Structures
1.
Amino acid sequence: MNLLSMFRRGSAPVARERLQILLAHERETRHQPDLLGVLREEILAVIARHVVFDPDKVQITMDRGSTVSTLAVDIEIPNRRRASGAASQQLSRLALSASTATTRSQWTNGLV
Amino acid sequence: MSEGKSARVLVVTSGKGGVGKTTSTAAIGAALAHLGEKVVVIDFDVGLRNLDLVLGAERRVVFDLINVINGVAKLPQALIKDKRLENLFLLPASQTRDKDALTEDGVAKVIAELRTKFDWIVCDSPAGIERGATLAMRHADAAIIVTNPEVSSVRDSDRIIGLLDSKTEKAERGECVDKHLLITRYHPWRAARGEMLSIDDVLEILSIPLIGIIPESEEVLRASNVGSPVTLNAPLSGPARAYFDATKRLKGEQIPMQIPSESRGIFNKLFGRKAA
């Protein structure tokens, strides 16, 4: 919308559009107050069924960008087959990462 | 002590400050009493009480809500009877005590006692989403969400609607608080020119039923200046009629919605003054 059309139509349509985008986003996050906490528990439960790891050596981060958000899960797994002592313990790393596109157009479509 | 009544608890809330919660509480409380209901209005804004001032009872406050909760005063001692309407009572907020004095148990007991004596308990919520606001809505059967057609007010109303759906007793029982949208400070001519969010815009964004539209008017300011609800002070004015209609809808009557329209006459248009 250019300046001329804003002037002609008044600023209410801009207010309306900004609110719709913002509230669609806020409502989404409101119902998942601790999304990261829930994800952490569920992901760790799945991985714990297959490998042994120290829950303290897990890093889960979510990076929210303007168009793409990234979820990164970094789990340190002790390699037990070769472990003969604490000093020589080998480590493997399991890293997962996922991206979610959260574009403006999707928010708007989701609401209307 | 019990008179066999079972009051309906109404919270007047908004999230944002300055949108007209206290004005609306006074106007609707007085309108309900005028229509024959026995009403108590409670000010939950501990530390910043103002409902007493808007109702013109500021010099008659002896005990307050916190005094009742602390057991310093009995409930009947703290209730102030309105001088104009014998059915209207005020339970003022404390002006000086700290906010922690407002306890969940204390509020529950006060509401339970009032329920047996009144038809309506109208809770005037403080702004924000802190303790005072959550306790004001805690026991509500119905809520009036006061919203100005302006972005920050609409956003905060949306947040409050979320709280009404999660933090109230009714919500925790899996029931739903009846939510009603009251749009205040509406300028028909600004909405018509696309300078202000329209009624339809706000309704579409918040998607809760509309109970009334209160036009911006100098009568509202005049009423608070003299300490009288606008529904008593200027009952035939635009805002008072809108408040009366909203009150009747609250009682379940079917009243067609009047959208305030451009009411500037040719004289006012020529000289650029807006009608009251």
2.
Amino acid sequence: MASPLFSTKELVPLFVVIPILTAVLSNFLYKKSRLVKVLAGCAMIALILLPFFTSFQSNYYVYGAHPEVNYFLKEGVVVAFNLGIAYQYTQLQMVLLMAFTLMAALSVGVAFVMHERVSGVYLFLLLMAISTACAVCLVDDIFNMFVFFEICTVSQAGIVAWLSEDRAFGTSLKYMLLGSVAGGMLLLGIAFLLGSTGVLNISDMFEYFSTTATQRDAPIIFMGLALLIFAWTYGGGLPPFHTIKSELYSRASAEAGALLQAISKILLISVGIIIARLFFWQDVTWQSMMILSTFAMMIGGAMAMVQNDYRRLIAYVAVNQAGIVGIGLSFFRRLPTYGTMGPVYLWGHEGMAFGVFHGFNEIIVTSALFISAAVLLHVFGHTDMTRIRGMLQRNREFALLTLISMLAVSGVPPLNCFQSEWRLMEFAFAHGFMTVGLLMVVSTVMVFYALAKAFVLVFLRPVPAEEAKPLQVPFAMTLTLLVAVVLEVFFGLFPDVALKPISVGLTALFGG
Amino acid sequence: MSLVNIQVASFIGSVSLILIGLVAILFIDNLIKKVLGMMFLTDGVNLFLVTLGFRLDVPGGAIVPIFTEAFYKAENASMGVAAREFADKAGFCLPYALVLTNIVIGAATTAVVLGLIIKMYQKHKSLNASEVLGEVIQRG
């Protein structure tokens, strides 16, 4: 999909550099609201276009301010310092970043509408969060992944705290305190892996574990695995962190909620793939990932059904969907395929590709639902479903666009989430994960019920004729919903456009 | 004290710091003490990383991994020999770089958390997490 006119690997670091530079400038020019808007707008357009102009390159090294020193001495001693960040840019990253940058750009656009005088500081936080999420997706060094993970945590807490509400401060504080535990555990896990392998580069570690079997059963490796999975649950919003994550999404401004859930999905997928690459040889890896994800899926679905606040409902739907993505990510292993001669074990990451594809779809769909919450917040000043009614009478276009996104996330054909959820369920049943498959069906029904209830309360309940005045929805919000709906229908009809690059990218990362 | 004992003591120290930090963050009610727990946790992980850079195979202990001109002159040898000697004796320097980065991240995180605590204190006139965050949860 790279452009034949202009395509280069040199553009890979711009996914991180452009938002960081814009963030710094926005913070510096915090009083000049219009200039800051123009800067952020240009940066987001550049980010959307970047995946189309960047060619694929594995293990691409980017050097910072320091030059590379590769000094060969006469006596045969090699002094080599590679001060830089290693990025991995395959078709998998391209597809994920396409969805993420588009939805992030639309969220930033909605922020311009929601807050008349956009603060440079707020944009700084949004852009830093976008930058670090892109970095976690691209990076091929496990310590750099930790650094970006930590900055992402601080940025996310800052986005929520920016609202300057008491509850937002409380949520940010709790998120930061738990983040300090998760970050510490992640670094400790990295230290265990460094102590075992002597390297920090993820591809090098993958090679090490692929070729060296002697160290594999050491307790220190299992400790590293456990600590990485702990950090993964925090980043992706899986149990035991599902409560704080859903609180974070719902306490933030609605458009920020869309961005935060998209970031969580990127962290969930990226860190999940890293864990799968490093510990693919150990059954306990996929087992623990599957158990935690199944809990998230069921808890998210059950909690969504009992919510009366639209934003909290969407937040729990996001947790539920994170669980489904996590289950997909755990479908990597020597899977039994049942034939006439009995089970045949085949190594594969086909199921994982379906999980990533669901994450890709989910970034689009849940962002759209959060933007619909932003519309309600913009119009009514709250998202309490018991106090809002008659939206269908007031704005039919908005009702239709929201309905399509609700149907998409519920897995209704021919929309995009149907394609990914159907494939995941089919895969689960075909490879002996009957319980997980059945629970996925149940969770889909739960989400459908929760969203149907929300649609009836907010849109279908009639209001008296004198109150049924047409409501104007800002153009940026309608555009965001429209773009999301077009993508939902497009990827529902042509799933292979996204699924094939994801499979190719996973093959590049895991080897054929 | 032998080198092995020093390394073991460092590991025990780092594990103790991590456990104290975890207990403080999860179970102590005072917000400032929670922040102190965060710092204990970070320092524990840092100490663990520093201990990883320890080398037991160098008699008398490894040297600090900084290749200076003084080292070159003291060895009174060619650049290559000096570099090889340095590589044989120097500690494993990668963990130190990680520790430096983690110290910076820890400082930034602590500053943000303290800022949030100040805002919460101005509102609630209390530093008890059960009161401050509990009130928030009830009203939420």
